[in-house]
């Protein structure tokens, strides 16, 4: 995981079902924390065009999900062959039905995002452009 976070041209995350929502959140965290381009796609939809953008240097992360089908796992394997950088979340956290498995995958994604941030010299707790606020109320007197 550390080697994948060290460099690269961007992150592509794949997920299915609730795993797709998790992939989208993980992509957002990678952009926020690691300041790298990251995109999330549904596992099977990735075959229909975005796969052409995957090249050596782009990290494939996934697939996220707790009920991945054989077709989805095959699609991930096909995508992995298009790049030399694959963080296989299913090897780190094998799919497990229910919320426990999804929370474990979320934890792994967050840890990877934090590692991306640190390996690139950024402090994830001090974003450069995101102000601290909740709704329309700014914290620490910022406006």
Helix-strand blueprint:
Layout: H1 2-6, E1 10-15, H2 18-34, E2 38-42, E3 58-64, H3 70-80, E4 85-87, H4 89-92, H5 99-119, E5 133-134, E6 137-138
Parallel strand pairs: 1-2, 1-3, 3-4
Antiparallel strand pairs: 5-6
Helix pairs in contact: 2-5
Coarse morphology: globular
Contiguous uncertain segments of 5+ residues: none
> In total, how many domains does the architecture comprise?
1
Task: State the end-to-end CA separation.
Answer: 38 Å
Largest sheet: 4 strands, parallel
**CATH uppermost class:** Alpha Beta
Fraction of helical residues? 40-55%
Short synopsis of the structure:
GO terms for molecular function: carbohydrate derivative binding. This is Fructoselysine-6-P-deglycase FrlB-like protein. This protein is of the alpha/beta class and 143 residues long.
Structure, described:
One of its GO terms (biological process) is carbohydrate derivative metabolic process. GO terms for molecular function: carbohydrate derivative binding. Residues 1-122 form the SIS domain. The structure is a single chain. Helix 2 (18-34) runs parallel beside helix 5 (99-119). 34% of the residues are buried. The chain starts with a helix and ends in a 5-residue tail after the last strand. With 143 residues, it is an alpha/beta fold. The protein is globular and about 50 Å long. The model has no long low-confidence stretch (mean pLDDT 83). The chain has 5 helices and 6 strands. The strands form 2 sheets. The protein has a 4-stranded parallel β-sheet, with helices on both faces. Strands 5-6 form a two-stranded antiparallel ribbon. It has one domain: Glucose-6-phosphate isomerase like protein, domain 1 (Rossmann fold), CATH 3.40.50.10490. Strand 5 and strand 6 (137-138) form a beta hairpin.
